[in-house]
Each structure stands twice: as C-alpha cells, then as structure tokens.
Design brief:
Rossmann fold, 62% helix, single chain, alpha/beta, 14 strands, binds adenosine-5'-triphosphate, rod-shaped, 16 helices
C-alpha cells in the first residue's frame, strides 16, 4: 500500500482541516449529495498538479479556496489559502529518487491565484512534482482518477485522446517526456549548431585574411633570415676587404710618397746644377787670362834661356882663354920662392890658434895660403888670366841669377799650366755634369709623373675605400634597422673575389625590396591574432563536433525511445485486449471487445492545401476510404479505436450502446488497463452509479480483483461497493456549508448513503 493519507485545509467545502487515512486496500467515501465527496477526488487531482481549474469545477485558482458559507448564524469566514497534502509510503521505493520512507506532496493556492508546491515540506517547482509522479506511474492525465460522470470519457474521447490515455496508463508518458525533452534539446542543439556555424562562417573570411597576412609575415621572416645570413656574409667579407685594402694602400702609398720626395730633392739638385752652369763664362775668361799669362811666362823664359846661353858662351870663351894662359903659365911653375916669404905665412897661420871654429879656421888658413900664392904669382900671372877670371866670376854670378830666374819662370809656367789644365778639365767636367743633370731632370720629371700617377691612383683607391667604409657603416646601421641587430653580429670572413660581394649586394638589394613588399619584419600582432582566431575557430569546430555528437546521441535516444514507446504500446495493447476481453465477457456474459491501433487521417483542404491537423474519427476515416468525402487524407499519428460487439445483439459499435452498456464497457476497459499496468492508487467517483444490482455485484468482484495491485478510493452510493471497502468515510455538510469527515461503520455508511 502506497497511499497513506490526504489532508485538506481550506480546500473547497473543507473549511477546516480534514484528514483521510487510507489504511485499507479499498477505502469508501460516502455521503449525501452535495456534501463534498467529489471535492475529495478533486483534492487528489489538485495536489497532483492539475492545471485545468475547469476540470476541478472552477474558473480560477481562487475557486479552490473555502469561500465561506451557511446562514448568518453559523457562517464561517472564508479562507485565504487552500492546501491539500497527500502522503505516500516510500518504504517500497515508489519514488526511487527519494531517500525518505515517507513522501508528502503539498499544494497551496492563494487568493492571488499563486500556487506553491512542497515536497516533504520543501518548496519545489510544479515540474519536479510532475516528474516525480510520472516516475511513480501517477500520471497527470489522471487516468487513475475517474471523476463523477467521467467513466465513459475513454469511450467518448477521440482516437488520439484515447491513445494518449492508454499511453499514460501504460506508463509511457515518462518516455514521451524524455522524448519531448530530447526533441527540445535537439532543437536547441540545432540552434546552437546554427549559431556556431554562423560564427564560424563569420570568422572564416577573417581567418583567410589573417592567414594571408601570416603567410606574408612568415615569408617576410624567411626573407629576413635569408637577409641576415646574406648580411653577415656580406659584412664579414666587406670588413675584411676594407681592412686589407686599407692596409695595402697605406703601405703601398708610403713608397711612392718617399720616392716623390726624393725625386723632388733630386730635381732641385739637378736644377741647381743647371743654374750653376750659367756661371761657366767667368771660368772661360779665367782660362783665357791664364793662357795670356802662360804666353808671357813662356816668352820671359825664352829670354832668360837665350841670355843664359850667351852667358854660357862667354863663360866658355873666358875659360878657354884661361886654359890657354894656364898652359902657357905651366912653364912658369918652376919658379923659385924665398924661404923668408914662406915663414911669414906660417907665422900668420900660427897666429890663428885663437880661432876655435874649425870651419872658420880652415877658410882663414886657405885664405892665408891663397894670399901667399897670389903675392908670389902676380909676378908670374898674366893679366889676361886675371881678367878672364874676373869675367868668369861676374859671368857666373850673372848665370846664377839667370838660372834662378829660369827656375822661377819654369815654376811659374808649371803653375799656370797646372791651373790651366785644372780649369780646362773643370770646364770639361762641368759640361758633362750639365748634360747629366739635363737628362736627370727629364728622367726625374717623367718618373715624378709616373709616381704622381701611382699616388693619384692610390689616393683615388683610398678615397674609394673611405667611401666604401662609410657605405659599409651606413649599411650596418641600415641592416640593424631592417632585419635587427643579429645581422651586425657577424664573424670573420675569408678573402675572396670581389664579384662575389657584388653578387651578394645585388641579392641583398633584391631581398630588401621583397622584404619591404612583404610588409617588412615584425607582424607579431598579426601572428597573435591569427593564432587566437584559429584557436577560436578550432574551439568552435570542436564545439560543433561536440554538438554534432550530442545531436547524434539525441537522435539515437529519440529513435530508441520511439522504438521503446512503440514496442511497449503495442505489447501493452495486446495485454490490455486480453484483459478487456476478460472483463467484457465477465460483464456481458459473452461478446467481443478489443482495441485496435489505427492511423489517423488528416484532412487536407484542396483549396489551399493547408494542414488542418484535424483529428478525424474512424467514421471520417471510413468516409475518406470509401471516397465519399472530398477531402484528401494522409497518414497521421496512430490512434486507438474501441471495437465491441455485445452477445446476442447484431448491432456493433460504441454508438449503439445503452447508457448502462456504455458504463460497463468503460469500466471493463478501465479495469483492463489498470490491470496491465497497475497505478499505485485508483479513485473512482460514482463510476458504479449506473449499475443495476446484478452488475453491481460483478463490479464489486472486479474491484476486489483490482485492489490486489492498486489501492482503491471509491466514492459511492452503492451498497455493494461499500461492502467491499475496508475503511469507510462519511462526508456531511452542516448548516455552515462546510464539509465534515468521519470514519464510520458499514451500517452507518449505508444509512449515510441513503
Ligand atoms: P453528489 O453526491 O451530489 O455528487 P458531492 O458530495 O460529490 O455531491 P461535492 O460536489 O463534492 O458534493 O460538493 C459540492 C459542494 O461543495 C457544493 O455544495 C459547493 O457549494 C461546495 N463548494 C464547492 N466549492 C466551494 C468553495 N470554494 N467554498 C465553499 N463551498 C464550496
């Protein structure tokens, strides 16, 4: 037993709190007309979340609230709220999701028509209640709550409504909800997918644009790297080249510079020689005067020589006359000298002993001797000799003088000759030097030109190098700006041909232009944006994938649910039919009863082809099939038809049944359905009203049978039915218009019912 109690407070005619306890499988509620019995059944609908106030015999929620009543003496003030609380035993896990052994649901409606729902005292949403009940097979369509006069509702319903009732009774609503939920999710998923797709479509051109930019940036980066390599090679080579060339030229220029200085000096000297040679006339004059002097000197010498010759001749003539005289005198040599004369001489010589000087002594002695001789000769010497000797002496003196003169003249001449020769040779020599100097000047000038040319070439080369060095520095700076400092961090180069450097320079220029075309280096912003946009796109792609997966899962789930609903529905119908046939036979003592699944036909108007979605009855369908209707039909959802044939009666179809027959058929179907998938409880509000005594008995048997699976709450006036109830409640209404509830015995109940 699942149902424990129902508590009404301010609900409809139940002004005061009323408590129904369901301690038996069958609970009977009895009472006079208008006492408030149906309000109890409605209290169930109300608390289980009924949203149709109309089906609760009201217009607004407010109509559910005790509105006061009775005459002035016994009037009871109206309530502000109506509440109904139903309590279930959950020890058998009727509500598997709730851990408590008791589950109470409460609904409160206020005068402002607002509703509150409470689950075990905590406020919840209506949705939670509906879900909870659906899980416990207590459906919202109220297939287990048959209100007064509603017993044949299942028969009068359209085939589609009927199908819904059956589905609900078979407990397929849970699946349908799940399906509906899945469909809703599917719709949302589709919407999300569309949104994501449109977002992706939106960013796609941006990505394409960015990609192109990135490709450009990447290309630029590639170019930049190439340029760095080129620059490094270029700079290394260039630096080496410049340094080497600088050294070479500075070394090379030293020689020519020195040579030029030397040449200048030499030229100066040569020029001086040439200037000096202009003084040569003075020397010629000197030479001429020397020649004059020499001539005079030579004629003087001739005169002297002639004079000497004459003197010599005279001397020789005198000597010869002496010699002749002497030969003649030789004969006189035997002449006698007196001793006395000799002694005189000796005395003279002896008187010379005072002379100490030997030489002087000698010449004095000689003199003395000669004097002696001369004294004695005179007597013998001829005058001729003495004369000749006299001449000889003067001649000799003269000759000595002339000889000295000659000697002088000769020396003079020699001196003049020497001077002349020297001067002459000097002049000759000067002539040679001049010529040399002239030659030198030409040579020097020629060489100077050569050297100057060399120097000019070298200077030009140095200038070129200086310019190249300047360029080099400029290029270094430029490279730093264009491709970054890395390009300027080159290592050493190797000596190579200059044309290679030219090639490189051309390549560098080309690359620089290409790099500029590619937008220069940098572009990290674009890269970042591209990466981010790509990531976003990938994220959206992933999301789309996930959504697609979720969609597939939902589609599969829906298909599974469809299959399940279809299977459970069809097998449910088969089971219901078995039970239906049994109950029908029991009621009517024979005959045939069955449910058939038919496909509804939808009518399509020819004029506008609008889908009316009108649900047609089986009669319509038959009309359509026989071609008597001008409406076109097409396949619609499945519906359920009830086919019955009574025993011993030829007529078929529900339309042909009497009120009682109709009630019996309804009850048979109701019980069949409840048998197949028993709900925890069933409320039947005067379902037995139309039954005669015989059928009341059968009804009572069926009830007892049904109560084995479901708790029954029966509102009844029927004695037979009351007899089957374990517990009976009597409902009365006093003069205040408020219903009162009390547990009563069977006899009382019978009395009350009457
Ligand atoms: P019967 O046996 O004739 O079907 P019943 O016992 O089922 O009668 P109900 O239909 O449950 O009687 O009760 C109807 C009574 O409840 C009426 O008298 C009606 O005035 C009263 N009632 C309904 N709503 C309210 C309300 N909001 N406030 C006061 N009384 C109400």
């Amino acid at each position: 037993m699942h149902l424990k109690s129902l508590e009404l407070s301010g609900f409809k005619s139940f002004a005061k709190k009323a408590d129904l306890r369901f301690t038996s499988a069958i609970t009977g509620i009895v009472g006079p007309n208008g006492s408030g019995k149906s309000n109890c059944a409605e209290a169930f609908r109300f608390v289980l979340g009924e949203q149709s106030i109309k089906s609760l015999r009201g217009k607004r929620g407010e109509d559910m609230i005790w509105n006061g009543g009775g005459d002035s003496s016994s009037a009871t003030g109206r309530s502000n709220r109506a509440s109904v609380k139903v309590t279930f035993d959950n020890s058998q896990k009727l509500f598997p999701t709730i851990d408590f052994d008791e589950v109470s649901l409460e609904r409160v409606v206020h005068r402002d028509n607002s509703n509150e729902y409470l689950l075990n005292g905590s406020q919840v949403r209506l949705r939670d209640i509906v879900e909870l009940l659906a899980g416990a097979h207590i459906g919202a369509t109220g297939h287990h709550i048959i209100s007064q006069g509603e017993a044949d509702r299942i028969l009068s319903a359209s085939i589609r409504e009927r199908r819904e009732m059956i589905e609900d009774a078979l407990g397929l609503k849970v699946y349908q909800w799940k399906k509906l939920e899945s469909l809703r999710k599917l719709e949302r998923t589709d919407e999300n997918m569309k949104q994501v797709e449109s977002l992706r479509r939106e960013i796609a051109p941006h990505i394409r644009f960015l990609k192109k930019q990135v490709e450009k940036v990447e290309k630029a980066e590639e170019l930049r790297k190439e340029l760095i390599v080129l620059y490094k090679e270029y700079f290394a080579s260039e630096e080496l080249y410049i340094n080497t060339e600088k050294q070479k030229t500075s070394e090379g220029i030293a020689g020519p510079k020195k040579e030029l200085a030397e040449l200048d000096l030499r030229l100066e000297q040569a020029k001086k020689i040439l200037t000096d040679s202009k003084n040569k006339d003075t020397k010629s004059d000197k030479l001429i005067s020397l020649e004059e002097k020499l001539k005079i000197c030579r004629s003087e010498k001739d005169t002297i020589t002639r004079e000497l010759g004459r003197l010599e001749g005279e001397l020789r003539a005198n000597k010869r006359s002496i010699e002749k005289e002497q030969a003649r005198i030789k004969d006189e040599e035997l002449r006698m000298v007196r001793l006395k004369d000799v002694e005189e001489v000796v005395q003279v010589i002896e008187g010379m002993d005072a002379i100490t000087d030997v030489k002087k002594l000698w010449s004095e002695i000689i003199g003395a001797l000669r004097g002696f001789i001369a004294k004695h000769r005179s007597s013998v010497d001829s005058a001729l000799i003495s004369e000749a000797e006299k001449d000889i002496a003067s001649l000799s003196g003269e000759r000595g003088r002339y000889e000295a003169k000659l000697k002088d003249a000769t020396e003079k001449e020699a001196k003049f000759v020497r001077e002349y020769e020297e001067l002459k040779s000097t002049i000759e020599k000067e002539k040679d030097t001049n010529r040399e100097a002239e030659k030198d000047v030409f040579k020097i000038i020629a060489r100077q030109n050569e050297v100057r040319h060399i120097l000019e070439t070298l200077t030009a080369a140095i200038n070129v190098l200086a310019r190249e060095e300047e360029n080099f520095k400029h290029e270094l700076g430029e490279a730093g700006v264009i491709v970054g400092r890395e390009a300027t961090e080159y290592s050493h180069g190797a000596i190579e041909s200059r044309s290679m450097q030219e090639e490189r320079r051309k390549k560098i220029e080309k690359n620089k232009i290409r790099l500029e075309d590619a937008g220069g280096s940098g572009g990290s912003e674009v890269m970042k944006e591209y990466r981010e946009t790509e990531e976003r796109d990938a994220f959206l792609g992933k999301e789309l994938e996930d959504l697609e997966k979720a969609k597939q899962e939902l589609v599969k789930m829906i298909a599974d649910l469809d299959a399940r609903i279809d299977y459970e529905f069809k097998s449910g119908i088969l089971k219901i039919n078995t039970e239906f046939q049994k109950f029908f036979t029991l009621m009517f003592g024979g005959g045939k009863a069955e449910l058939t699944v038919v496909r509804e036909a939808r009518r399509k108007r020819k004029s506008d082809g609008e889908d009316l979605s009108d649900v047609l009855s089986s009669e319509d369908l038959r009309d359509a099939e026989s071609g008597s209707s001008d409406a076109e039909t097409e396949d619609g959802p499945e519906g359920i038809e009830v086919n019955v044939s009574l025993p011993r009666k030829k007529v078929k179809g529900l339309m042909m049944l009497s009120g009682g027959e109709r009630a019996l058929t309804s009850i048979a179907l109701l019980f069949a359905v409840s048998q197949v998938n028993p709900p925890p409880f069933i409320i039947l509000d005067e379902t037995d009203a139309a039954l005669d005594e015989a059928n009341s008995k059968k009804y009572g048997d069926m009830i007892e049978n049904l109560s084995k699976h479901s708790q029954l709450i029966l509102i009844t006036h029927n004695r037979e039915t009351m007899a089957r109830a374990g517990v009976l409640y009597g409902v009365t209404m006093g003069s205040d218009g408020a219903s009162k509830l009390l547990s009563i015995a069977f006899e009382e109940a019978v009395a009350v019912a009457k």
